[in-house]
UniProtKB/TrEMBL annotation:
Enzyme Commission code(s) on record: 2.3.1.9
Keyword Disulfide bond: no
Protein name: Probable acetyl-CoA acetyltransferase
Natural source organism: Amycolatopsis acididurans
Pfam families named among the record's database cross-references: Thiolase_C, Thiolase_N
Alphabetical keyword list: Acyltransferase, Transferase
InterPro entries assigned to the protein according to its UniProt record, in alphabetical order: Thiolase, Thiolase-like, Thiolase_AS, Thiolase_C, Thiolase_N
Domain Thiolase N-terminal positions: 5-267
NCBIfam families membership: AcCoA-C-Actrans, PRK06205.1
Ranges where the Thiolase C-terminal domain occurs: 279-396
Source organism, top-level taxon: Bacteria
PROSITE patterns cross-referenced by the UniProt entry: THIOLASE_3
Class of this enzyme: transferase
Length: 398
């Protein structure tokens, strides 16, 4: 089976919820990274055979975002596209799906990506199409509703949202509020240092943000990093649930961003004049209890290592999506890697943010650029997924 090469991975800066990228719709974010991946790689747009894009909070404003974004980015009419959704793992699933396409010979060159504009996720109603005789209609927040409806209530009982699943892990593993805040501070510091040292410069493409008056303004830097965070400052934040550990300071953010790359069959790289940044070595997905969804990386990595023969000693860097600090700490305890300095060396969801459908490709982009900078070889990418899933992937730097 042919190896899947990863070419020209890029990402936008990550915008804060309601922040600098709020005026930029999903289709513009997605088109921005598609255009940049094509430009950097130098691929002939006619050679692109499909576009696989993840979006977890899709709606009918941009149906089938892969095709929509391909057209919006100016790719030839003959380039099709489609959409994937594995919630938090959607972007990584887009990469895996594109890889399977080139590995099996269904295509030679595919664009994989992910996008989310959480600032623009709408409210909706379910009971108004056919009307009602009297009374009002419930207007749901799609963000909150998606978390509440992540699993069938008849089977698992009511789970109010992802914060509840994190608190379950905090109790099960005896993780304290102070430990969670310490990890959050580390995430912010790592992300801030990455920007200050120029480590993100090569992976980020600016986004043009329209203004009410005048020319668009470039948005160039991740917006959620709080370099001045300390354990003392985070300790002053109130917990989301009474008596809990999770606060706005030690949980992932809601964000806007996009990321993309080319996925190309290794045996045609020279044909199209493409230079790989890395290769997808393997990937796996696994289910877990929805009430402790944060442990998803544990069974996913176990399955991945069983398939590939790899172990933790074989990887140079480890990325975890940082849904919550307590979630990462619980996973690291299961792996017996507490305090491992290979984990999230440039920050992750707590500091950089978690734009759901884009996060997997954002993490891939950061991981490959950092592996190449350090002259490392193998990286492990892992994600927990709302509803009780985990994903993991191994990549090799070129």
């Amino acid at each position: 089976m042919r190896r899947a090469a990863i070419v020209a991975p890029v990402r936008t800066p990550v915008g804060a919820f309601g922040g600098g990228l709020r005026p930029v719709p999903v289709e513009d974010l997605a088109a921005t990274v598609i255009k940049e991946t094509v430009r950097r790689s130098g691929v002939d747009p006619e050679a692109v055979e499909d576009v696989v894009f993840a979006q977890s909070y899709a709606n009918s404003e941009v149906p089938c975002v892969g095709r929509w974004a391909a057209l919006h980015a100016g790719l030839p009419i003959g380039v099709p596209g489609f959409q994937t959704d594995r919630r938090c793992g959607g972007g990584l699933q887009a990469l895996a799906t594109a890889a399977m396409m080139v590995q099996t010979g269904a295509a030679d060159v595919v664009i994989a990506g992910g996008v989310e504009s959480m600032s623009n996720i709408e409210h909706y109603a379910t009971g108004v199409r056919w009307g009602s005789r009297s009374g009002g209609a419930m207007l749901y927040d799609r963000l909150d509703r998606g978390r509440e409806r992540s699993q069938p209530e008849w089977r698992f009982g009511r789970i109010s949202g992802m914060v509840e699943t994190a608190e379950n892990l905090a109790r099960e593993y005896g993780i304290t509020r102070e430990e969670a805040d310490e990890f959050a501070v580390r995430s912010h510091r790592n992300a801030a240092m990455a920007w200050e040292s120029g480590r993100f410069a090569k992976e980020v493409v600016p986004v043009e943000v329209p203004q009410r008056k005048g020319d668009p303004v470039p948005f160039e830097r991740d917006e959620g990093i709080r370099a001045d965070s300390t354990v003392d400052s985070l300790a002053r934040l109130r917990t989301v649930l009474p008596g809990g550990t999770v606060t706005a300071g030690n949980a992932s953010q809601q964000n806007d961003a996009a990321a993309a790359c080319l996925v190309v069959a290794e045996d045609v790289l020279d044909t199209f004049g493409l230079a790989p940044d890395g290769f997808l070595t393997g990937w796996a997905a696994a289910g877990c209890e929805p009430a402790t969804m944060g442990l998803g990386p544990v069974p996913a990595v176990a399955r991945l290592f069983a398939r590939t023969g790899f172990g933790f000693d074989d990887v140079d860097l480890i990325e975890i999506n940082e849904a919550f600090a307590v979630q990462v700490l619980a996973v690291l305890r299961e792996w017996r890697l507490t305090g491992d300095d290979r984990v999230n060396v440039n920050g992750s969801g707590i500091s950089l943010g978690h734009p759901i459908g884009a996060t997997g490709l954002r993490m891939l982009t950061t991981l490959l650029h950092e592996l190449r900078r350090r002259r490392g070889r193998h990286g492990l990418l892992t994600m927990c997924v709302g509803g009780g899933q985990g994903m993991a992937a191994l990549v090799e730097a070129a």
